[in-house]
Amino acid sequence: MKVTVSHKVAIEVTHIDVEAGVRYWEDATVNGVADEDGTLIPGRVGEHWKVRIRLADGVVEDWPAGTTADIHYKVCDEGQYWLSDASRQRQMKWAGYYVPNDFLCHGGRGYGDYIILEIDGAGVIQGYQQPTIDDEEWQVVEPAAQERNDG
Length: 151
Description:
By secondary structure, the chain is mainly beta. Helix content is about 10%, strand content about 30%. It is built from two helices and ten strands; from the N terminus they run ββββββββαββα. It is globular. The termini are far apart.
């Protein structure tokens, strides 16, 4: 007989990894200039905005020094979000279909559809407040899935 057992384990996470499908790139300004076609924003990979944000202080890693951005991206349910550890191993995946507001909406209300951030020239999200992690909103990434992610 098989029995499914659920138990809680402590997982150390330090970052949120964002992979958001952006509908309208022009909804951002970079260094005060409207980013009409999405060519100015750091972190754009194809049609996705991929960034890694430190949870403790809201620093966007690898953000180009001196670059500022005011972001108001419509994402709806076209994003994936992971909590990862210091070695970049994804530990938990956002279980919802919408943007995790507490993590990616600082300075506005995103209603689950928008990423709203103002990033200064040092890569710090203005008005950032470290979010509380509700473990019921995140799914633990299984080791087999982690290996597929690394490969």
